Every structure is written in C-alpha cells, then in structure tokens.
Amino acid sequence: MNHVPFLAAMYLRLSRDDSDVGNVMDRNGTIKLESNSIGNQRELIQDYIQQQQDMELYDVYIDDGFSGSNFDRPEFKRMINDIKARKVNCVIVKDLSRFGRDYIEAGKYIQKIFPALSVRFIALTDCYDSFSADMQESNFILPMKNFINDSYCRDISIKVKSQFEVKRKNGECIAPFTAYGYKKDDMNKHHLVVDAYAAENVKKIFEWKQEGMAISAIAKKLNNLGILSPKEYKKLKGNYRGGFSGSGTSAWSSTTVKRILTNEIYMGHLVQGKTEKINYKIKKTVEKPKAEWIKVENTHERIISADTFYIVQNLLKSDSRISPKMDKYSFFTGILFCGDCREQMIRRINRYKDKEKVYYICSTKNRREGCSRHSVEEKQLKYLVMEVVRRYVNTFLDEMTLFETAKKIKAKKNPLDYYSKEIEILKQEKNKYNMLCQSLHKDLTEGVITKEEFIRLNEEFKRKADELENAWKRQESMIKEMFQKDIIYLEKLKSIQDVLEFKEIDRYMLSSLIKKIYVYEEKRIEIVFYFSDKCRTKL
After folding, report:
1. pLDDT exceeds 50 at position 20
2. Distance from C-alpha of 62 to C-alpha of 270, rounded to nearest angstrom
C-alpha cells in the first residue's frame, strides 16, 4: 500500500430544483448562501477525510444549483483542470448521483479517465472506493448504479416537462423573467401584473411606430431620453440573472424595439413553448414550429389594445429602408400601394426654382420592371383622404344613439344579468345531481337499491352533473367575450369620434383608421379601412 498522502478534492453538487438557497434564513436571520444538502455532503466528507491518516484535503469544489444530467459545470471543470495539473489525485463524493447522473459520462470518468490519471475515486454512501474495489464492483455494480441514476434523471426530466406543459396550457407564466412592461404578481409568481413605469414606455413605442417612426429611430430616441433598456431595467429592479455581459451597459437596439412591437403578451396573451431542449442531457434548445406553440388568451391585463397591435403589425410588414438622416417614414409609407401590381408607392420630390412638388409613383415602374407610374400628388392625396375619412366617420356615427346607448350600458346595471341568473340555475341543478350521487351511497348501504342499479344511476347522475358544469362554463366564457367586445367597441367608437376634432389628419390617425390605399391609373383611389368595407373615389 502506498502511504504517500492523497491530495483529495471534495466535490459537492445539488440541482437547482432541490436547492433551498436564498429562500430560507438561518438561525441568525441571514439568507442562506449554501443549501442544506450541500452542507450535509460537506460534513460527511470532512469526517471521512479526518479519519484517514494518508489523506489531506486539497480543495472543495461546489456546483450548487447544477443538474447532474451533464458535466458542463464550472466547479467540476475546475476540479478536472487541477487533476490534470497533478494538484489532486483523489476525488471524494457523497454518492454516485452527486458526481453525475449521466450513465455513459459518469462511467467514462470513473472507469477510464480517473484510472488513466492515477486518481482514486470514492463514493462514500455507495461504499465504493476504486483503491480497493474488486472486478465485480467496478464492472457490474458500479455501472448498474450509474444506470439507475441516469434513469432517475430521465424520469424527472419527463415529469418536469409534463408539469410545464400543463402550466402553459393553464395560462401560467413559467418563464424565470417577465417581458418588459410586466412583473410577477407577489401573490402568484405564475401570474403577470403591469409594471406601470415600463408599461408607459411600451405604449410610447407603439405610439411612435404608428406615427411613422422607424424602428432604429425609436431605439435612438429611447437612448437619448435616458430610458433604461429592458436588460438594464431588470438589473436595476434586481430581477436579472445573466452570464458574462462584458463591460459597459446595454442600450436600446432595433432588435429590442422590434421584439416589443411583435410580442403578443402586450395584448394580454401568453405565448409559451417556442423552444425545447434537444434532450435532458443537453442544454441546447431548438425552435419549435409555430403550430406547436402554446397560446392562451386574456391571461393578464393588456397594455396595448388588439387594434393597435394589429395596426402596428400591418405597418411592420411594409417597413422599408430609411435614410440615416431621417427619423420618420413619409406620410403614406406602408399604407400607399399601386392598385395594379400591389407594390408600395415611393415618394419623389420635384424641385424647380423656389417651388417643390411632392408626389408618389409605383416602385415597380421606378425600378423599370414593368407596370406604370400611377403618379399622384401628395397634397391632393392628403386632401382627398381627409375628405373621405370625414365622410366615413360621419356615416359611421350617423346613429349617435348607438354610442350613447353603449355608454349607458356601461354605466347602468350589468346587461348580462340574465346570463348570470342562468348560470346560477345551472349551478343549482349540478349541485342537485351531486346530492343525488351522495344519497345513492346511503341507499346502497341500506339495501334500497342493488349494486347494478347504484352503478347505473351513479354514472347517469355524474354525466348529468358534468353536462351542467360544461354548460355554465360555456356561458361564463360567453359573458367574458361579450364584455370584452363591448369595451373594444366603445374604444373604436371613441377613436373614430376623435377624428372629427382634427382639422387635418395626421400620420397617427391615418394609420389607426386606414389599412391600405390603392392608387390606380386615371386618378382612381381605393381606401381600405380597418373597421369597415372599402371606399372607392377619384381625385
């Protein structure tokens, strides 16, 4: 036996799911920096080393909050580097599962790499010591235990994945961090509530986009105003945990702005499950097809109306390159199209002496790829659009009693009382069948009915109770939908009514009401509104 002291590495590991770090205070009232299990592992290994005359502790390596399904762990890597540098020649763990749960990788280290580097391996509670283990322990028992640990890790992964799937379908937010504009509810970490400050910035971003600002210009404006980027804001609030971030601070970028402008979360909807891990052993994730994403609507308070969101999506589809000297697109960019080839019209300026004429022509013709000019002067087009909008608004608001009635409905007694009463009746009926099911047990015990009759009647009563429950849930869903439609309708009417107060239509109002304008030859114009049918006219 070699009596040269073994320089031991104490390796401790605990997965994040099992950890209680930062959640509990110790007896002195301070937040725990090390989990109970890590502390227990440390004490067990320390006691063992103290009893060994030919062994001394070189260093302690702790991976607290890391899965055992792979060996991509910072402290494990540091330990391996020390082994290769001949600073350590003995590794001690509490048990094989603390070392790792990957059957193949664990076996490779214990049975190949460590022996090749003359490293002794000890798993205390599994009673394994490579220094004294026989062939049966090394070649049969050890691989079997590693295989069991690997199977356990796989089973846990499947269960966790299944639980996450259920939570997503229930509309619970399982992401560790929330989208900019929201924060986690103090009473329920799976529910989102509005972060008032950040939400105002989100509203500004959507508003600026509707006003015609380019995405890059929005990012620049946010930076000039000194508004913290989502990453920096999370750091300020203390709810950001990231890896290496480099020096300096993170600024707003076009990518960040576009991510906000295209995120359905701001309409009150949760869209989750966009990515998934390749398997439980690899951290790398892959994008899932959009059809497999899990979307649950109306899970939290919205910041942006559905109308505003879809208007902005429509504008984003038509975004084009913009001069670095300009912050905004021209008045009709993203809205004005050629009626024949459906390509965007482009703005041109004709300057002669002290006069300037602004007009639009077909971009296909401008590229000399066919079609015709479809030329239309901007001044004339603005005048025409304003007149058509006024006519459209007046027609839409001809029956002002409709608007007044809608306001009264909101102020008066809930108009959905009838459905509420229906729901109450359905609930009472369901309770009646539940009571009948309970009485059947008594009748069976007292011999009033046979077992066959009990089974038949019990199934019938339960079926009826389930039908009634489904009926009242459908009515509750309908009430919720009707209420939301009523609110949206009022908002639309109000936004349209506001147009009457404008002497001249601006870009924001233009993009709010008009989806597309098609220009044909012979000065014929077709305007497509968001809230009604097309309107055709001529200059």
Report:
1. no
2. 37
